[in-house]
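Problem 3 from the worked examples.
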Amino acid sequence: MKTKLRTTYLLTVLFFLFVTVGSMILFYNMFSEEFIIANNKKIMNSVFEDAQGMDLSSLTKSDRKRLKEFSDKGGLIAIYDGEKIIYFSGDTPERKRNIKRRRFDEKIYEYTYTPKANVSEGRTAIRLKGKIDQNVKTYYVYCSVKLRTLENSIGLISRFMLVEMIIILILGIPFSFYMAQRTVKPIEKLGKIAKEMENNKPIDFEEYNFPNNEIGHLADQIKSMYLKISSNINELNNYNYLLKTQNKELVEFDERRKKFIGMATHELKTPLAIISTQLEMMNMDNDEAMSEYYESIMEEIQKMSNLIREMLNSSFEGDLILSGPMNVGNLSELLNSMKDKYKGLFGSKNVVCKFDIEDNIYINMNSEQIEQAINNYIINAYEHIDIKGTATVTLKSKGDKAVISVYNNGSNIAEEEINNIWDGFYQTGERIKESNVGLGLYIVRNIVKNHNGICYAKNHSNGVEFIMEFNRTDKY
């Protein structure tokens, strides 16, 4: 059973939301307490460092404001000068007296010049106890934060995050469904267009609205492709009509040719009969009248020759040999322009295709025909090369010749077949069952012959090399 893209998208988004928020809650519950404790320790140490830079005998308004920032976050600060508490952030005088008695008078020995904030025994609070010498006087600084306050804050935040996760999931379901609809609907439209293209139906793209994003860009590309295909189909239909018309004319011409040959053959019977009869008479009577028979024979032979000539002219009347125009061209540039196309083709088969092209080699050529011949050589190598093999295309000058070579590693061609592969519709034994009809090398031979060149193949120990040679010419 196929899963719809909309359902997959919706489930994916919901799963992402659930995992993300759930992970945040789990992570917070596991590590938040230690993180908050470490953060409060850092703040306490910073407060003590700030106190070291203050004039504790006369705290300014700015100093008190800085100390109050810590108490506003739930902490308590008390500064003792050995006689009385000169600064206290607590809320009641009773608590101040309790702090003086329990934290200073009874445990003054616990204060150090290099204190560090630590969690108390029983994990009830974070405390820092330090002392500072200023103006021949020692001041004692006490900082404290109750862990119960922190735990209450952590529990409150955890509950808030749980409620937040529920809200996100509740809001995320309709939002995810909306986004799934918004994403999938244009894709469904593209599928409908593709189905209409498959059924060769006319498509009005104005009926479809696509967003201005990658899907819209894809729709524009499909539209462009559809228009090109429609144009090509129309052109093919035109060519098909012309071919049908020409084929009809060829059929009519062939019928006329057959009729003419039949009539001409019939007409040949009479002079041939006369020749036969007169030759018999020559054999029977060898006298002066022979000269007359000879003249009659020659006259009938001439008639027969004329008829045969007319038959041949008529038979070959439709045999037109078309040859494109030839100009001096740069064979090196032609081969260089073909490199990228074939490197990509061979790359799809994990095959390395190398090009070794000598510069500035010119021949008198029809560039389209030469490109077709080279293409057939390279495609032939591609079809026969081993996977992860190597093909090499070279162009070299040898004397007054331009030599193109296409080598591929793979199986050799049987020696009894190496001369037959150039024939039309010929296939080697290993490829008889394939769809290739065996015209590639036949076309190469005709193109090379039309350019006054030669082509041949050579077997090597680990592959086959196909070669074509042409007469070089000057640039101008």
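Problem 4, a separate protein:
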Amino acid sequence: MEDQNNIVTMEHITKTFPGVKALDDVSFHLSCGEVMALLGENGAGKSTLMKILSGVYTRDSGSIKLFGTEVEGDLTPKKAQKLGVAIIHQELNMCAHLTVAENIFLGKEIVKGRILSNQEMNRQAKEVLDSLRIDIDPQTIVGTLAVSKQQMVEIAKALQAEAKVLIMDEPTSALTSKEINQLFSLIRELKAKGCAIVYISHRLEELQHIVDRVTIMRDGKFIIENDFHSMSMDKIISYMVGREIKEKFPRVTTEKKEKILSIKNLNAGKMVRNVSLDVYKGEILGIAGLMGAGRTETTRAIFGVDKKESGEIELEGKQVSISCPDDAIKEGIVLVPEDRKRDGLCTKLSVRENVALPNLDVICNKLGVINRKREREIADKAISDLHIKLPTREVNASSLSGGNQQKVVVGKWLARDSKVVMFDEPTRGIDVAAKVEIYHLMNQLKQQGIGVLFVSSEMPEIMGVSDRIIVMCDGRVTGELMRSEATQEKILAYATKFENKFENENL
């Protein structure tokens, strides 16, 4: 399907990692001024293909043409950047101790004489940030920024390089609705200027706003390339997973049982303010709200990651003291965290070791010696139950795709006799089929009488999966809805119900 308008032509690309063929005879084409959606399940090879195009990985075989010229030898990140290719990775690649401007100009610093010109870098960084309509001080240390702001800095870094081919790998996964709209406006502007954009996303509903064509991959192979608007969403999903997904939000009905977890007047920092909530056995309690509402902070306070200032936690009718995650785990309260790479995984350890780490009390004898057979059994069960794609349980967690890493984080808790499982954005950055598997897992826990607390920023998901929904805003619980009465309008009304800070004052 090579065309003279193609500015990127990749033909017969193969790439093998130890034990797995990541790309098998894949071809890919991209034209000037178009947005191409690159879709597929986790592990389909999307990110690997784009890392080859951006010089992060080298291809085993195949050819690459950029702007009609054959690329001789291997691409490197610097060579790809000089040719006009920039990539925004799914996992943020920032130097947390440097400023925003220093990150944007990393590797291409502005020097006057022999001295770094911080003033000029700050000025140019501000210009790029202003073009994104994001109010971030270029002199701010990146590590102090929220994840959503760090994502925008990553985008600004690519724009500063004046890329002609821009690869966006899950760019909206950590952005607010307002920031997503700003990003889409920017994409349209770049497209009008002739920039070609590869857009990788598992949020299929957002594609209709920006995408021209779609390339679908499955199991490391090219499946189809077509105009986006000529394909239905159901057809796209069936090409991605190789089968029809009949239920987007599978549910099971269980009898409402007794209360298992009760949080009373919990306070922790600025983002958890007098929070009270109850979770019942065999129930999925959804927590909805906008970015910064305090949902993640609430789960962290319950789990003992963040220090509690006041409040009570009752488990099965008895008050428990939780001052650290180890206390919570021993009581049977566990957390699947929002940031899997930072908080949920040891990426340099194997999948077996990651699953074993929080379960040492389960797999060790009284002398502290690990039962290797038991260790392998719980790892294999997690891999089987969650359909984790990997060549062997001994591979490092860092070698897995983002979705499969998320499954490993979830799988760690399958071996425990947990009473309450908290999921914080468990489907962020994973594909449609993997999402359904996570929902099935929640339903399994529900059927076992376990209380499930589920944080999600996607309203269709929170309404489709939850039995009951509480909504947070400004660190407080502002509303509660049963699944049968929940609508996006009602959730949004509660999610924007900011406290009137002056109502008790005499004005």
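Solution to problem 4. The mean pLDDT is 87. The longest helix spans residues 177-192.
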